Amino acid sequence: MAHSIVPDQTEALATGWEPDLPPSDTLVRRAVLVHASWALAVAESLGKPARRTDRWAGGLVGHRGELTNPVVVTQPMDAAGFAQVLSEVATVLPADVPFFLVSPFPTPDLRGHGLVRIGHPPLMVRFPGGENPRLPAGIQLREVSDADDLAIAERVLVEGYPMPDLQPLTPGDILAPPILNGPTRIWMASLDGEPAAVAAAHVAADAILVEYVAALPAARGRGAAAAATWAATLSEPALPAVLIASDDGRPLYERMGYVAIERWTAWIRPRSR
Fold this sequence. Notes:
The protein has 273 residues and is α+β, with helices and mostly antiparallel strands. It has helices at 27-45, 79-89, 147-160, 224-233, 250-255, and strands at 50-52, 56-59, 70-73, 99-103, 116-119, 122-126, 139-143, 184-191, 194-204, 207-215, 241-244, 259-263, 265-269. InterPro entries: Acyl_CoA_acyltransferase, GNAT_dom.
C-alpha cells in the first residue's frame, strides 16, 4: 500500500531560518550567522552601538563611508517586515549615517526608504583542507598582534580597498585594538618590507568569514593579497571559509578553491550631504 506524503498538519516543518535552529543546519545558515556576528564584532570593538534581533544584525562603525556600517538580514521577510527592520536600524544608525545592507533573501524595492540597490554579489565557500602555498618572492606575512600593527593594517585597508570617504583617516576609525581580543584575527602581507595587503578572519557559527581583503595599488598582482587571504582562509583548518566577493574579485577566490553557491542582494543608504 502506498504511503501518503502529505505531512502531518500538527508537525512543525523547519524552514531553515528559525532563530533556535543550530548554525550547522545548512552551510548557507552558517554564512548568514557569521556575517551577523561580524557586523556586531566590529562595532562593539570600537565601543559603538550595535544591535541583533531575530531578523537582522548591524552596528555603527563610523559616520563616513558607504561600505562602513554593515546591516545583515537574517530572516526572509515581506515588505512590511523590511520596513519594520529599517525602522529598527534607525535606532542604531542615525539618519545622516550611510550603511550597507546585505540580504541573503529576495528583497522588496527599498528605494522608498532611501536605499540604492548596488547589485547581487556572490556568496563563496571554500571547504576545509589544504595548506598555505609558498610565499611569492618578496612577500612577507605576519599576524597583526598589537596596536601599532593594527594602525598600519587599517591604513592599508582604507587605501587599498579603496575607501576614499574615510580619508583623512585617524587610527582607530574602523579598527581598534579590542578587535584582536575576540574571534577575529588579521594578517598583513608586506612587499619588499613595505605593508601591502591585509585580510581578516572572523570565526562564528561554525564558519570562518574572510573579510577586509585589500591590497595597495602598487602591490596588486604580486601575491600580497593572496598571501593574506590564504592565512585568513586556513586560520581554522577544520572549518569552511565563506565570503562575499565582488565580480571583479571572484577569479582570485576561485583560484583558491572557493565556489560561488548563490547571490545575495546588496543595498546602500548613501551618506546625507
